[in-house]
Write a structure and sequence with these properties.
The complex is a heterodimer.
Chain A lengths: L4 E2 L29 E6 L25 E8 L12 H9 L18 H9 L8 E4 L16 H4 L3 E3 L2 E2 L6 H8 L9 H26 L4 H26 L18 H17 L5 E5 L8 E2 L4 E4 H5 L5 H26 L2 E2 L2 E2 L4 E6 L15 E4 L11 E8 H11 L19
Parallel strand pairs in A: 2-7, 2-12, 3-14, 4-7
Antiparallel strand pairs in A: 3-13, 5-6, 8-9, 10-11, 12-13
Helix pairs in contact in A: 4-7, 5-6, 7-9
Chain B lengths: L1 H10 L5 H7 L1 H4 L16 H12 L14 H16 L14 E2 L2 H12 L29 H18 L8 E6 L4 E3 L11 E3 L6 E8 L2 E12 L8 E7 L2 E8 L7 E9 L2 E8 L12 E2 L2 E2 L6 E11 L4 E3 L2 E4 L3 E12 L6 E7 L2 E8 L24 E9 L2 E9 L3 E2 L10 E13 L11 H7 L5 H12 L6 H8 L8 H4 L1 H9 L1 H4 E2 L8 E3 L2 H12 L6 H9 L6 H10 L4 H11 L20 H20 L6 H4 L2 E4 L1 H7 L10 E4 L12 H6 L8 H12 L25 H8 L3 H16 L12 E2 L2 E2 L3 E3 L5 E3 L1 H9 L3 H17 L8 H13 L4 H10 L1 H4 E3 L4
Antiparallel strand pairs in B: 1-23, 2-13, 3-5, 4-13, 5-10, 6-9, 6-13, 7-8, 7-10, 11-12, 14-22, 15-20, 16-19, 16-22, 17-18, 17-20, 21-22, 24-31, 25-26, 27-28, 29-30
The chains are: A alpha/beta, B alpha+beta.
Chain lengths: 428, 861
């Protein structure tokens, strides 16, 4: 008999239970802790008039010393610029890239995203170079925003201008990946044998791919290139698993069933990011909460209408109020995340102190589809390189300037990124 | 007709430019440059393409301009432009080129099912496929992130270990903490020390959904009982595997010293849900008890659980009811059964070995029930049968044995006022025998792998056969040599062969479909490549031996008609229903819709499921009966089960099975009025005439409306300010001519469907306002309601519909978007279909025989 059941989260008031039995300590005592970066993206803009600590951001009040509210950042490349409609696709395509995406249903071309740029530099220090998560699996039929490929709305992390880093949706699978779990209950010995076998198989098929390449035309070669990249990436990961075995988890994560809870899903993802940072499985994460342009209803927050529908508020007070309710509901989950991050001790400080977490959206006023003055919160101290606890007012600055500053702090410095015009050291 | 115009045009090429001059130069020529476009100057290819698009979709000239070209003139303009930029020759169309594409998730699952013979869907864990043009098999869009490569490796490993088991599945023990398991809806949480309470009010349960190797398992639970009342009976903790009760325990332990309760249960191969719960006591007189909409007697106590442990598969061999006992030993006889009751005695089931009774059970597990008049059941799920496993342990001597479970006391009481108590009937679902002392067997190989293994110990032969089928083409001797380098002969055969087989499954030749390139030539694709295109089009899976065999002999093209007929009739063609229909009609998105529960309390999961099934069966019927595709828009029949029939108001349909019904006398015709489409095209709190109009324009007529301009004002949703029906409110907004130009195309269609609410149920009023379902299309046809609209689609819009369907089918079959030069192919397919009464198979054959499907255009390297 099928009944209404809810997924039980990883730990409740207690800190993540399975870390009690970790095989070895992650960070040696006295060592400096690495910096972590994470990007959390919410769709359909926000009620900007209420984007304050008195209102939508009220759940963040307990954490206000650990974060800054930044206004005046923009993504000019998310505007139409003669391409016509498609602001939702553009909002998410530019958010972490700063590049105006190609308008096509089949050819995808934007830019490399800030998280992947960082992963290219420092990703080899951890088992997983980066982690991509989302609560939206992706549209399964129909076309997406105004002639843009669906890829733009369901991915915010881009390895290259045409290769999205598809996010993982199922918490259970993320968990298994973090702990390199094979089939349930695989022994360490079996895992090592499997790694060896995988390695030799990869070498073999790499050779096959090289032969195949010589017979292909230019377009097909580019496709096969993704295959090459993927193989090299996995080979690297297998080597890392050998030198840095993952901690042994205690417990499991159940599946979702018919009665889904968005709140549980979001919170599980936040738990998993915290866990991946805590165990130094990765230092870079992106979380596409829900796709831009999505029309998810929020009955659990008291708004039964679809989000996108409400976001076209036409300045009607009731719609604006409902939009703010949805915004605040999202912020409540983000506050949960900050609490989790603060509960992990790292030396004299916490995991949050050593991180830089960006929370925001690629659209400000959703009725106007504006990409100026984007709603942005930057949490964490970046290991001492960021001074939070302020309202920072930028004067129409590209968000990519902020990314340049963040990349600096992640030891992946660049001259410029996307449409950046310099750095954004107001955060220091 | 169009060819004629084109030829005229070719003869007097200069004669075409006056059309552009006449209709366009006002804003786009003679010095005018609206939107930066001057059609009498230097124009690049992409701008010409935009012109073609705007002219053919009527976006240009704008609706408010009086001077508009005729339909024929529009065609001349676009043909002329195409001639300029593509050197478009309808007699020798460019077949285009498809980028090499990887198997998508559905194709991967099906290919593994057909190649290896196991149907466990490894790709369900893969990340979502990016889609383009509405379909998820577009070569250019399908990418291969490193995450996916990890998954391919892991999947190959799991698949081969399942397919070629070399030893009995080793037993392992996994303990699940109660506070990490799935919990009941209203259960109180973890009180902090890991103990979870289960009360019987809502039958609280703890559950895990886990994959299992088939066999017997020992389940253990640490629990104690907090009884209510001094002399209370011990509370019973029930254990279920999916929907069947497998065992239960009387929990007597108290909080001061919790107990560990153990039982041996059988779990079949696959992913199953194991739960322990505080079940209401069912059966016998308890079936007549109902409280809070729940059936059965509520147990008074609360059971507290800290963990659930599963050990297994344990030693023992599961057998069928006709079995052989090799040597004397202990056996478990099991029957899964439930019964309908009548009269004073319970239904009795007798276990017999070779006809001799060994024990008898009172079967109280309930069968499907009907709700009594006035009875409000919490959920229809509670009325379903609740089978239970009945078990006997017995000692048997060697020999062949035959185990049966017999019903010994039929009875009927037809006059009983309660319909659930009129006939005593036993249902036995499943019989099995477990030899407890026998060693656990090695799981059998699936059929395709078994056939492969007949060639052992010749590793070369096995690999040659496997790679041949997996790579969908003959394999060279050199390639087999290479594979053999992965074969380490010092290990046992079954173990060693897996390594090269794993390489076969991760090879680009398995994961990608493509054809070798010949620069800049147009040529037919090889028979081998054609076989793959065919099978992935119609089956979303690899070619079978028959198809591949014909291709290798070079006789596939001569047998195309017969093969396509065979393929459409095969059960594998269900993939066309799920994947093509699912994306063309967008019903795959049904799983994401969330109608507002207060406005649509009738909507539940079984209705969602029924909606999807109806449309799938409908598509299937047109495919299998080879009906005219025009039936899609105006067929006078559909498929319903009781749930859906009730939703539609169709009488006399009982039971969960689907059956064909006539729509005569109802306002519904064709796919447009099916609940699936109507719900998909609604908002959570109301219908959306705009979305419905857009769906028809996009998916049935192939003329999608242009995207909305920025700053589009949304419709007021507040019922307090409603002035009339939704239609009346929207009329007010369409008073704005800027909006009206596009909405005049979409809204009338949606208004024609306003008699169907946000979940597709019929209504004649919207609140207190009567619904006006009349409309007029921009092309002039007027209609009153949905069936007249469907009729227009089937008659005056028929060609447009067929063209739209043809184009969508081509995109799906080719794996690329359509370019201008594909128009000739589309025209030919439509002409052939018209000659064959628009039969489904003629469309399919037309696509398959078309130049884009059959040929390709090479490119520079």
């Amino acid at each position: 008999m099928h009944r209404r059941t809810l997924l039980r989260g990883l730990g409740t008031a207690v800190a993540l239970p399975f870390l009690e039995s970790m095989a070895r300590p992650v960070f040696a005592a006295g060592k400096t802790y690495p910096k972590r970066m994470a990007f959390v993206y919410t769709p359909n803009g926000a009620n900007m008039a209420k984007w304050t600590l008195d209102d939508t951001l009220a759940p963040l009040v307990p954490h206000q010393k650990d974060l800054s509210i930044i206004s005046g950042l923009n993504h000019k490349n998310a505007f139409g610029l003669a391409d016509g409609g498609g602001d939702h696709a553009r909002a998410s395509a530019t958010y972490l890239t700063g590049v105006h995406p190609k308008k096509s249903a089949s050819e995808i071309h934007t830019g490399i995203s800030v998280d992947q740029l960082a992963a290219n530099k420092i990703g080899d220090k951890t088992r997983l170079p980066s982690l991509e998560l989302s609560c939206d699996r992706g549209q399964e039929a129909g076309s997406c925003d105004s002639g843009y490929s669906c890829a733009y709305q369901f991915n915010i992390s881009w390895r290259s201008p045409s290769q999205p880093m598809n996010p993982e949706i199922e918490p259970k699978l993320v968990f298994e990946r973090l702990f390199a779990a094979g089939s349930d209950g695989e022994s360490q010995e079996a895992r090592e044998r499997r790694a060896e076998s995988d390695q030799s198989v990869l070498d073999f098929v790499l050779g096959q791919a090289k032969t195949l390449e010589t017979k292909l035309g230019a377009t097909d070669k580019r496709k096969l290139d993704e295959y090459f990249t993927a193989i090299r990436d996995v080979e690297r990961r297998i080597k890392m698993n050998g030198t840095m075995p993952p901690p042994v988890p205690d417990g499991a994560v159940g599946d979702f069933n018919a009665d889904y809870s968005f709140e549980r899903h979001m919170r599980l993802m936040f738990d998993l990011i915290t866990l991946s940072f805590q165990t130094d499985t990765t230092r870079i994460a992106t979380f596409l909460v829900s796709h831009d342009g999505g029309n998810r209803p929020y009955p659990f927050a008291g708004v039964p209408q679809g989000h996108h529908h409400i976001s076209h508020h036409r300045n009607q007070p009731e719609s604006l109020a409902k939009l703010a309710t949805i915004d605040k509901w999202h912020v409540t989950q983000f506050a949960y995340f900050l609490e989790k991050m603060k509960s992990v001790q790292e030396g004299e400080g916490t995991l949050l102190d050593n991180s830089m977490i960006l929370y925001g959206a690629g659209i400000s006023d959703p009725d106007a589809h504006s990409h100026d003055n984007l709603p942005t919160v930057l949490a964490g101290r970046g290991g001492g390189s960021i001074t939070p606890g302020r309202q920072i007012k930028a004067d129409s600055v590209p968000m990519t300037n902020l990314f340049v500053s963040l990349l600096d702090r992640m030891e992946a410095p660049v001259e410029s990124f996307g449409d950046s015009t310099g750095k954004f050291e107001a955060i220091a | 007709m169009r060819v004629l115009i084109f030829l005229l045009a070719a003869v007097s090429a200069f004669g075409q430019q006056p059309l552009l001059k006449k209709y366009c130069y006002g804003c786009h020529g003679n010095g005018a440059k609206a939107g930066g476009v001057a059609l009498d100057g230097e124009i690049d290819k992409s701008t010409w393409e935009t012109v073609i698009h705007h002219v053919s979709t009527h976006e240009m000239p704008p609706e408010n301009v009086k001077l508009q070209p005729t339909a024929a003139e529009r065609d001349s303009i676009t043909d002329w432009i195409a001639g300029q930029i593509y050197k478009y020759d309808p007699k020798h169309p460019d077949p285009g080129r498809v980028t090499m594409r990887r198997l998508n998730r559905s194709e991967y699952n099906n290919t593994i099912r057909d190649l290896i013979g196991i149907d466990f869907h490894p790709a369900d864990d893969f990340p979502a496929d990016n889609s383009g043009y509405g379909f998820d098999d577009i070569g250019d869009v399908l990418s291969l992130p490193p995450l996916l490569m990890e998954k391919y490796l892991a999947a190959a490993n799991t698949i081969l270990n399942k397919a070629i088991a070399t030893e009995a599945v080793p037993s392992k023990t996994v303990r699940y903490k109660a506070n990490l398991m799935e919990v009941g809806f209203n259960a109180d949480g973890d009180r902090g020390d890991g103990w979870m309470p289960l009360t019987a009010l809502e039958e609280d349960e703890l559950a895990m959904r886990v994959p299992f190797a088939g066999g017997d398992y020992t389940i253990r639970v640490q629990a104690f009982n907090r009884a209510r009342g001094a002399n209370a009976e011990p509370t019973i903790l029930t254990c279920m595997v999916d929907d069947t009760i497998v065992t239960d325990w009387k929990i007597t332990a108290v909080e001061a010293s919790p107990g560990v309760y153990e039982a041996r249960i059988g779990i079949p191969e696959g992913r199953h849900r194991i739960s322990v719960l505080n079940h209401r006591i069912r059966g016998g007189k308890n079936e007549l008890q109902m409280r809070n909409g729940r059936i059965g007697a509520q147990q008074p106590g609360t059971i507290w659980v800290k963990w659930v442990e599963l050990e297994g598969p344990v030693k023992g061999a599961t057998k069928s009811p006709n079995f052989t006992v090799p040597k004397e030993g202990d056996y478990l006889l099991r029957a899964t059964a439930y019964a309908q009751q009548a009269g004073p005695d319970p239904a009795k089931m007798e276990f017999r070995i070779d006809g001799t009774a060994v024990t008898s059970f009172d079967v109280l597990a309930p069968a499907d029930m009907k709700a009594l008049p006035g009875q409000q059941v919490f959920s229809t799920e509670l009325l379903k049968a609740q089978p239970r496993v009945y078990e006997l342990k017995t000692h048997l001597t060697p020999g062949e044995k035959h185990f049966t479970a017999e019903f010994t006391n039929p009875f009927s009481d037809p006059a009983n006022t309660n319909p659930n108590l009129r006939v005593r009937q036993l249902h036995v679902d499943h019989l099995e025998v477990v030899g407890i002392d026998e060693p656990s067997p090695i799981p059998a190989m699936p059929e395709p792998v078994r056939r492969l293994m007949t060639k052992k110990p010749n590793a070369r032969a096995v690999l040659a056969d496997f790679a041949h089928r997996a790579w969908r083409r003959p394999v060279t001797s050199a390639e087999i040599d290479q594979l053999m380098t992965l074969y380490k002969a010092d290990a046992p055969f079954e173990t060693a062969i897996k390594q090269p087989m794993k390489a076969v499954l991760v090879s680009p030749y398995f994961l990608f479909r493509g054809e070798p390139n010949r620069p800049d030539a147009i040529q037919p694709i090889s028979d081998i490549a054609l076989a793959s295109r065919l099978s992935y089009f119609l089956w979303s899976s690899m070619p079978d031996d028959e198809l591949l065999g014909l291709a290798e002999k070079g006789t596939l093209r001569n047998n195309l008609d017969a093969q396509v007929k065979r393929m459409l009739a095969s059960p594998k063609a269900q993939a066309l229903v799920e994947n093509f229909a699912g994306q063309w009609l967008e019903i795959r998105n049904l799983k994401f819709i969330a109608p507002d529960k207060t406005l649509y309390p009738d909507f539940d999961e079984s209705l969602r499921e029924a909606m999807r099934k109806e449309t799938e069966m409908f598509f299937s019927s047109i495919m299998l009966e080879d009906r005219s595709v025009v039936d899609f828009v105006n067929a006078d029949y559909t498929f319903v089960n009781e749930r859906l029939a009730k939703h539609y108001g169709i009488p006399d349909v009982t039971g969960p099975e689907f059956r064909k019904v006539s729509l005569e006398g109802t306002p519904r015709r064709g796919v447009l009025t099916q609940a699936s489409v109507l719900t998909l095209t609604s908002n959570p709190t109301r219908t959306s005439p705009v979305k419905r109009g857009k769906w028809v324009l996009e998916d049935l007529l192939g003329t999608p409306p242009p995207p909305p301009p920025p700053d589009v004002p949304a419709l007021k949703d507040d019922p307090k300010h409603a002035t009339g029906t939704l239609r009346q409110q929207m009329e007010q907004h369409r008073a704005n001519p800027v909006c009206a130009s596009c909405h005049a195309r979409m809204d009338p269609i949606g208004f024609g469907l306003e008699n169907f609410d946000g979940i597709g149920a019929y209504r004649s009023k919207e609140g207190t306002f009567p619904i006006d379902a009349s409309g007029k299309l921009t092309s002039g046809e007027s209609f009153q309601g949905a069936s007249e609209l469907s009729n227009i689609l089937a008659t005056s819009k028929r060609d447009q519909f067929v063209r739209c369907l043809t184009e969508k089918m081509m995109i799906y079959a080719l794996g690329r978007g359509l370019e201008y030069y594909d128009r000739a192919a589309t025209d030919q397919i439509m002409a052939a279909a018209a000659r064959n009464n628009y039969k489904f198979s003629s469309l399919v054959l037309g696509v398959i025989k078309s130049s884009p499907f059959e040929q390709r255009h090479g490119e520079t390297e």
